[in-house]
Design brief:
alpha/beta, two-stranded antiparallel ribbon, 11 strands
């Protein structure tokens, strides 16, 4: 049996507003030399994910205005691995577009989807967690990465944890690896809370910050988009069959996040194989910069 390849998908669009005036629409914060040695957040993200997939299986989704900056930032990225959104439509259509491209290259592929503008201090721990998440996804699961909160934060969404999944946790650790972080079932995805609610979540101990990092088979996420958002599913089908239609059809997609479109709805399904999104937690000096 041929082993499915892992593809890394980096979401690198954005309006360049969160660190204005340093960032601009043509050069949002992921392209700024903010890290030691002048490294950009995007270059650091791609460097960290080399443990999951080579640059040849790394795709970056961005806008036409940012392609030039992207190529300057990551010159080793193959030009065919740059996916251009004709119009920003939020993360559900963006991830769907990437899934179509990944499935075209490998119908059985597993995707690791990461934002391009996050900071990670403990990179070794981060990579270990990503590797475990990919193993979970390779078994057919939708997996997300939660961050243990260090303070009440109203700027992040939260994930409420349910019970542990020991069987999936063993698979995530690998056959010969020692057990690592447990794998949890997601009980609910919670929107950005009030300050009082964020304090409650911190004290409860079973809530994690939602990092916006996801792992799944490409076909699985396309199936879920068809099931929960048929309008988008039909658009993606047309793009898959007729790539030249992307410029016209993609802007017709609803502007909606992957959390609203899929994750929250799956979290509400308490029975059946799609019920539990798996969650791996981390504590590695993570920050959503800006």
């Amino acid at each position: 049996m041929t082993r499915a390849h892992t593809f890394v998908v980096i979401l690198a669009g954005g309006g360049g507003t969160r660190l204005w005036p340093h960032s601009r629409k043509s050069r949002p914060k992921q392209f700024l030399p903010m890290l030691p040695g002048g490294e950009t957040l995007l270059a650091a993200t791609i460097r960290r994910t080399r443990a999951l997939a080579p640059i040849e299986r790394t795709l970056v989704v961005t806008t036409a205005e940012q392609v030039e900056e992207l190529r300057l930032c990551v010159p080793e990225l193959p030009i065919d691995n740059i996916l251009i959104e004709p119009l920003g439509r939020n993360t559900a259509p963006c991830i769907g577009l990437a899934a179509v491209a990944v499935r075209r290259r490998d119908p059985k592929a597993v995707m690791a989807v990461l934002p391009s503008d996050h900071f990670v201090a403990d990179e070794a721990s981060f990579v270990r967690t990503l590797t475990g998440a990919v193993r979970c996804a390779a078994a057919g699961h939708i997996v997300t990465l939660g961050i243990r909160p260090t303070h009440p934060e109203t700027g992040y969404g939260y994930i409420q944890l349910g019970g542990q999944d020991a069987a999936v946790g063993k698979a995530a650790a690998g056959e010969t690896a020692s057990p690592g972080e447990p794998v949890w079932r997601a009980a609910a995805f919670v929107e950005k809370p009030t300050a009082a609610r964020a304090r409650d979540y911190l004290h409860a101990g079973n809530y994690l910050w939602n990092s916006g990092t996801f792992f799944f088979p490409a076909q699985r996420i396309l199936d879920e988009l068809h099931r929960h958002l048929p309008v988008l599913g039909a658009i993606l089908d047309d793009i898959a069959e007729n790539p030249a239609h992307t410029a016209v059809r993609y802007p017709e997609a609803p502007s909606i996040s992957i959390d609203y479109a899929v994750m929250e709805r799956l979290g509400e399904e308490l029975v059946g194989p799609a019920a539990a999104i798996r969650v791996l937690s981390g504590d590695f000096g993570w920050n959503d910069v800006g």
